[in-house]
Specification:
By secondary structure, the chain is an alpha+beta fold. Helices cover 40% and strands 31% of the residues. The strands form two sheets. Strands 2-3-1-6 form a four-stranded antiparallel sheet, sandwiched between helices. It has a two-stranded antiparallel sheet with strand order 4-5.
């Protein structure tokens, strides 16, 4: 019987002067993962961007549960997007998208 793939959802707050599009953010995080852990390590993360709220500068990212620490390190390592300084902070991590959105709504 195949194992079920467990995922984690991360809410990431961006601190930057300008708002970026979802593809540029995802590419910057992928680049950081690749620099830190190589191609093989990056393939183990399963990163994908779920949602980006430009007005709030909030990104919701999905990864595999066993690579959560690698993704956290890569997010902390990301300091520039297209030569623009940026800081990323993980606000919340959850096992389901529904719970993550509920927790984000409660924090406001």
């Amino acid at each position: 019987m195949p194992k079920r793939i467990r995922r984690r959802y991360l809410a990431i707050k961006l601190e930057a002067e300008e708002a970026f599009d979802k593809k540029k953010l995802t590419d910057a995080i992928w680049e950081s993962v690749t620099k830190l852990f190589g191609e093989y390590g990056a393939s183990k993360t399963g990163i994908s961007a779920i949602e980006y709220r430009k007005e709030e500068k909030m990104l919701i990212l999905r990864c595999f549960h066993n690579s959560l620490n690698m993704v956290r390190a890569a997010i902390a390592f990301t300091t520039k997007i297209e030569e623009t300084p940026v800081a990323m902070h993980i606000i919340n991590v959850s096992g389901t998208l529904k719970a993550l959105r509920k927790n984000l709504k409660n924090e406001k």
